[in-house]
Structures are given as structure tokens and as C-alpha cells.
Write a structure and sequence with these properties.
Bound molecules: guanosine-5'-diphosphate, 2-phosphoglycolic acid, manganese (II) ion
Strand content: 15-25%
Keywords: Cytoplasm, Decarboxylase, Gluconeogenesis, GTP-binding, Lyase, Manganese, Metal-binding, Nucleotide-binding
Radius of gyration: 24 Å
Number of strands: 32
Pfam family, one: PEPCK_N
InterPro entries: PEP_carboxykin_GTP_CS, PEP_carboxykinase_C, PEP_carboxykinase_GTP, PEP_carboxykinase_GTP_C, PEP_carboxykinase_GTP_N, PEP_carboxykinase_N
Catalytic activity: oxaloacetate + GTP = phosphoenolpyruvate + GDP + CO2
Helix content: 25-40%
Largest sheet: 9 strands, mixed
Distance between the termini: 57 Å
EC number: 4.1.1.32
């Protein structure tokens, strides 16, 4: 695909000038940028080269404008706090659209918009939307620059906060611009907070607009996002590109773009295994990605915490790669007793959003320490004490930090080829029904499990907290095409693997509760006990017990050494309530009905087989 070879990367100085590549592809990029500028009318255009000097100047500027608070370098060097507008704190799924030519291709789970009409709407919104602001042109690579699984793109944005965040979450810089100039294909993404400044008008700490649009054009590989500064709506390389648009590219090219974490687990015998896990937002991906096993002899290395691109290899195995370069993690609940690795990762060079500020210039959030500080400034800038009614940090407050800072990041985390995948986990937040762990009997049963995942709503997106909703493959908000076709694609990819080399699929649930409402399973580091069973299963060291919903562990095969857990709680963790599962099957049938003809017959058969086993139980 490269039409021109350019020898050197332009020297990075952070001047904001147009890179001096003189090729037809570069002329196309410039023409596209000029077109966006003509529409949005920014005061100036800055081409981002990814240099240290540029990033420093950007952060200094944000502090000067009151958009970031510099944290006390004694506690948190190189770190900042952003406070969003109180209305702009999470992804806005109701305002997220797939503008495919045919409505059918967006499918029943996405908001569809007619592309022609949507382009008109967006033209109106973006008209003059960057007036008075700087428009940044940010070239980024998902995956190591030039890697065989990597994809590049450009984000145009009027938010310097977004630029700083993209710089952490992706690989930004002139090496990418050079690839574009050489003719590599790239994805176009455009972002405006939708808050133009008239001459003399004072800016606000978090500009945004009540009207929000996050729009994907899957046929032309474009993203337009308007009105929000929140990470998931503003870092377009992440959910918008690396999941929604990439899932479309993956469908066409025969691979998978998934909402998954990726780890390497080394067992006491020194054998390494790679596990990817799909959990809905705020259901434990980052935590499992940074797992510190509580059982001896096991170690975990982090490879990714949110997105994995997976390709079938020529050897019949699957290869998985994390396309991101950083973590955009949920702060609340991240503490010494839950995720000490994350706490250590956040020692410095971190952008925090909507956490609380301590009087000494450090940050705090619920769960960081057991006892809250006596005085804080809450996420909205108001005085806070432990007697306050509301949490000090927003429940969806976040940290943005480079993956390289993670103390247990794998040495080879930037290997562009990815790692061979042994296990895929599906999970969600389920107070009842779903056991701690269940093994799928084969790939199509695993795809069935993935397609039926449901989870209680969290603060990561707008909506009623705790409400149970279907979230197939944890991709409900992130699949860029018809979810029925996506199920079929998973089945098809499975057929391209050697059956004995395909990853083995398991369902897990760390969130089952007792009648008194408490979690039955300690979770976090103790999830290593479940991983231990899974690895011994795939290594053929333990047998499993058949149940109507899949294979369960024998109690004696679970390593529970040193764990204080009541026998009754264990019973409940693995209880398969036949009536509740028959009701679950009915609900799955209702859920499947929305896909009509797009639902693969194999999944209908899986549902019937489940009912048959439940009836016979
Ligand atoms: P992500 O958005 O999927 O990456 O989710 P996180 O790993 O950030 O976790 C979201 C929330 O779930 C945090 O408040 C965590 O403390 C909590 N969490 C994560 N793992 C567990 C677990 O094993 N058990 C329990 N009870 N909570 C967990
Ligand atoms: P996450 O989502 O909760 O899966 O990390 C990040 C986002 O809200 O964009
Ligand atoms: Mn996460």
C-alpha cells in the first residue's frame, strides 16, 4: 500500500507546523485538514508531532487556562487533575450513532442514522464550532507504528485535554504522519467540544455542549464527535476507532476487534498462558489485567486492559495484540487492597479526571484508602468531609496513564505480532444465576455464552445503575455493525482455527451476591484461584463436572488454601437454579428475536440444546 518511501522522520520540535512531506498522499491529508478548518474556522491549526516539548507546552497551557490543576509534584510528579462539566462524565450511548448506508448494517442494537442526513446535521454543528480555539491535528497509531496488525489514523480536535490524553493512550507522532505521506491507509476522526469562543469571550475550565453526537461512518472509515470532552467520546482512537470502526474492518478482513483485557499467566511449572477477557465497562477488566495472584507460584504480566485485536494465525491459533499504549481506568475502587498494581502505576505522569483533591495537592477517591481524609475538595470543586452525602470522586472518575508505567507490564507488550491466545473469558456483573466459573463445551457453545452475556449497569455510561441489560461480548455499545452478523463472524473465525488450537472459552462472574447483598466471592487477587482452575483444565490436569449450562469445577479442584470462605457461600457461588435458568433461556429467546434473520442458526440450536439439558436436569 505504500506508494512513496520517505527516509527520515521530520525533526520533532513541537512548533505545530505542517510536516514538510511532499507527496500526493500528504497533499490529500493537508486538503482534508484544510477542509475541516474551513468548516470549523479555528483561530489556528497545530500539527502535533508528539515531542516532549510539545506535550509539556500543552500541559502548561492547560494549567494556565485553569483547565488542569497541577498536582503537588512531591506526591504525584508530572500529574494533573481535570474537572469536567457535571453533565459530561461518561459515554453517551443514546447519542452514539452508526451511519451506515443500510439501516440493516447498523443492526438492532445500535442507533442508526442516514449518512446523508447525518452529514448535513454534522456540517451544521461543526460550522464555526472551533472559532477562537486551536485545532490540533493528531496522527496516531493503534499498535506499534508499522506493525503488521497496526492501524493508523488522524484525529482533528479543538480540545488540548484530548490531545494530551491521546498522547498517553496511543502512539502519536511524526512517524505516523510519515506513513500517511507514504500512502498508508488511515482513518479520519474529527472532534469538537462544540464551544466556539467569540472575540473577548472568556473560556470555561471544561468546554462542552448540551447537544452531543458521536457518529461513525463505517463505509468510509470516519468518526465525528461533537459536544463532549469525556474520554470515551473524545479519545476517538479508543472506543470509536479501535472498537466500532475496527470491528467493521475486522469483519471484512477475517479478524476480531474486542473489548477485552489481555494477560500472560505463568503457572508454578513455569508455563506461560495468554488469557483475554471481555467484561462490560466498569466490570473488572483493568483489575484483572493487573492481577496479583494470592496463591503461591503464579505470576501475571499485563498486556492490555481494554481492547484486543485478535487474528487467526497460519498455525491455526489466534494471535492477540493490545492496540493501545495506555490505560484509561476507573479510579473508584482502585486501592492498595484491591489493585495495588494500578496504585503503583499511578505514581506520576497521570491525568486524573473528576477525582477529589486533597489539601496537600494529591488526589483521592473512594476505595483508594479505607479511611477518607478529613477534608477534601470534591470532583466539582466543592468542600467535602466524610460526613458529606455524595462521594468525593465521581463514580466514573478516571486516570489516564502510560502502560509502560505499570510495574507488571510484560517486557514484550509492544511486540507487534501479538501473543498466541489460549483462553477467552466472558463475564459481567450478575448478582444471581451465573456461577463463579463455567467452561464452554466448544467454540459454538462459547460464542453462545458470549452472545447472551448480561450485566448490571455501571456508571461508565448514562443509564439507571444496577439495571440488568444484555451486553453480548461486552460489545453492546462498541460493535460497529449488525450484532447478528457479529455473532456469525465469531462463528466463522472459529472455523478458520484448528479445532484443537482454538482458545478455550469460559464464563466468569466475580459479582454474585448472597441474600444479604454482600459479594460471595472475595474477587480481585483471589480471582487467581479461578485462573488456576482454568489453566489446569486446559492443561488436562483436572476433570470437570457437566451441568446444563456448561462444565463446572469439582470442589476439590479449586485451590482455596488460606481463603476464609463459608461452605454455604461456595454452594451458592456454584448453584445452578434450573427454574431461574429456564427463565434466563426465555429471556435469551426474546433477546435473540430482535436479530431476525441475522441470528445464526447455530446459536438458535445452542439455545434449544440448553433448554433440552435444563428440562432433563
Ligand atoms: P473496567 O472498566 O472493566 O476496566 O473495570 P475496572 O477493573 O476498572 O473495575 C471496575 C470496578 O469494579 C471497580 O470499582 C473495581 O474495584 C470493581 N472490581 C473489579 N474487579 C472486581 C472483583 O473481582 N470483585 C469485586 N467485587 N469488584 C471488582
Ligand atoms: P471502560 O470504558 O469502562 O470499559 O474502561 C471507557 C469509556 O468509558 O470510554
Ligand atoms: Mn478499564
Amino acid at each position: 500500500t505504500f506508494t512513496t518511501r520517505i527516509d527520515a522522520v521530520a525533526p520533532a520540535r513541537g512548533t505545530g507546523d505542517v510536516p514538510a512531506y511532499d507527496t500526493p498522499a500528504m497533499a490529500e491529508l493537508r486538503a482534508w485538514v484544510d477542509g475541516i478548518a474551513a468548516l470549523t474556522q479555528p483561530a489556528r491549526v497545530h500539527w502535533v508531532d508528539g515531542s516532549r516539548a510539545e506535550n509539556d507546552a500543552l500541559l502548561r497551557g492547560l494549567v494556565g487556562e485553569g483547565k488542569l490543576i497541577k498536582l503537588n509534584p512531591e506526591w504525584r510528579p508530572g500529574s494533573y487533575l481535570a474537572r469536567s462539566h457535571p453533565s459530561d462524565v461518561a459515554r453517551t450511548e443514546g447519542r452514539t450513532f452508526i451511519a451506515s448506508e443500510r439501516e440493516r448494517d447498523a443492526g438492532p442494537t445500535n442507533n442508526w442514522a442516514d449518512p446523508t442526513a447525518m452529514r448535513e446535521t454534522l456540517d451544521g454543528l461543526f460550522q464555526g464550532s472551533m472559532r477562537g480555539r486551536t485545532m490540533y491535528v493528531v496522527p496516531f497509531s493503534m499498535g506499534p507504528v508499522g506493525g503488521p496488525l497496526s492501524h493508523i489514523g488522524v484525529q482533528v480536535t479543538d480540545s488540548a485535554y484530548a490531545v494530551a490524553s491521546i498522547g498517553i493512550m496511543t502512539r502519536v507522532g511524526d512517524a505516523v504522519t510519515r506513513q500517511i505521506a507514504e500512502g498508508a491507509p488511515w482513518v479520519k476522526t474529527v472532534h469538537s467540544v462544540g464551544a466556539p469562543l467569540e472575540p473577548g469571550q472568556a473560556d470555561v475550565p471544561w468546554p462542552c455542549n448540551d447537544e452531543k453526537y458521536v457518529v461513525h461512518f463505517p463505509e468510509t472509515l470516519e468518526v465525528y464527535s461533537y459536544g463532549s470532552g469525556y474520554g470515551g467520546n473524545a479519545i476517538l482512537a479508543k472506543k470509536c476507532f479501535a472498537l466500532r470502526i475496527a470491528s467493521v474492518i475486522a469483519r471484512d478482513e477475517g479478524w476480531l476487534a474486542e473489548h477485552m483485557l489481555l494477560i500472560r499467566v505463568t503457572d508454578p511449572k513455569g508455563r506461560a498462558h495468554h488469557i483475554a477477557a471481555a467484561f462490560p465497562s466498569a466490570c473488572g477488566k483493568t483489575n484483572l489485567a493487573m492481577l496479583r495472584p494470592t496463591i503461591p507460584g503464579w505470576s501475571v504480566e499485563t498486556l492490555g486492559d481494554d481492547i484486543v485485536w485478535i487474528r487467526p494465525g497460519e498455525d491455526g491459533r489466534m494471535y492477540a495484540m493490545n492496540p493501545e499504549a495506555g490505560f484509561f481506568g476507573v479510579a473508584p475502587g482502585t486501592g492498595e487492597s484491591t489493585n495495588v498494581t494500578a496504585v503503583e502505576t499511578l505514581w506520576g505522569n497521570t491525568i486524573f479526571t473528576n477525582v477529589a483533591l486533597r489539601p496537600d495537592g494529591d488526589v483521592w477517591w473512594e476505595g483508594l484508602t479505607d479511611t477518607p481524609p478529613a477534608r477534601l475538595t470534591d470532583w466539582q470543586g466543592r468542600p467535602w468531609t466524610p460526613d458529606s452525602d455524595e462521594p468525593a470522586a465521581h463514580p466514573n472518575s478516571r486516570f489516564t496513564v502510560s502502560a509502560a508505567q505499570c510495574p507488571q507490564i510484560a517486557d514484550d507488550w509492544e511486540n507487534p505480532e501479538g501473543v498466541p491466545l489460549d483462553v477467552i473469558l466472558f463475564g459481567g456483573r450478575r448478582a444471581s444465576n451465573v456461577p463463579l466459573v463455567v467452561e464452554a463445551t466448544d467454540w459454538s457453545h462459547g460464542v453462545f455464552i458470549g452472545s447472551t452475556i448480561s450485566s448490571e449497569r455501571t456508571a461508565a455510561a448514562e443509564g439507571t445503575l444496577g439495571e440488568l441489560r444484555r451486553d453480548p461480548f461486552a460489545m453492546l455499545p462498541f460493535c460497529g455493525y449488525n450484532m447478528g452478523d457479529y455473532f456469525a463472524h465469531w462463528l466463522k473465525v472459529g472455523r478458520s482455527l484448528r479445532f484443537d488450537r482454538a482458545p478455550r472459552i469460559f464464563q466468569v462472574n466475580w459479582f454474585r451476591r448472597g441474600d444479604d447483598g454482600r459479594f460471595l466471592w472475595p474477587g480481585f487477587g483471589d480471582n487467581s484461584r479461578v485462573i488456576d482452575w482454568i489453566i489446569r483444565r486446559i492443561s488436562g490436569e483436572v476433570v470437570a463436572v457437566d451441568s446444563p449450562i456448561g462444565r463446572l469445577p469439582r470442589r476439590e479442584d479449586l485451590n482455596l488454601d488460606g481463603l476464609e470462605i463459608a461452605e454455604a457461600d461456595l454452594d451458592e457461588l456454584f448453584d445452578v437454579d434450573i427454574d431461574a435458568w429456564l427463565a434466563e433461556a426465555d429471556s435469551t429467546e426474546e433477546f435473540y428475536a430482535m436479530f431476525g434473520d441475522a441470528l445464526p442458526a447455530a446459536l438458535r440450536s445452542e439455545l434449544e440444546a440448553l433448554r433440552y439439558r435444563l428440562d432433563a436436569a
